[in-house]
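Bit of a strange request maybe. I'm writing a small parser for structure token strings and I need a real example to test against, not something I typed by hand. Could someone generate the tokens for this chain?
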Amino acid sequence: MAYVICEPCIGTKDASCVEACPVDCIHSTDADPQYYIDPNTCIDCGACEPVCPVNAIYAESDVPAEWQNYIQINADYYNK
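Reply from user aminoacidic:
Good idea to test on real output. This should exercise your parser:
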């Protein structure tokens, strides 16, 4: 299981999660609307979740129903 960045990141895009990640699995470009977590690299440590100022990060099993599509959005970002 990995962590997932959801809709609240859009428009905020705070890099606190990037700095907290011990395995460098959170990425984005300046053109991207949000940060994304690589599900193949994420070690499920949860270090990113408490530092997110907009509560956009969830364990995959805890993603709210309205944001379930972000599980695939994060994965697709790394499968281009």
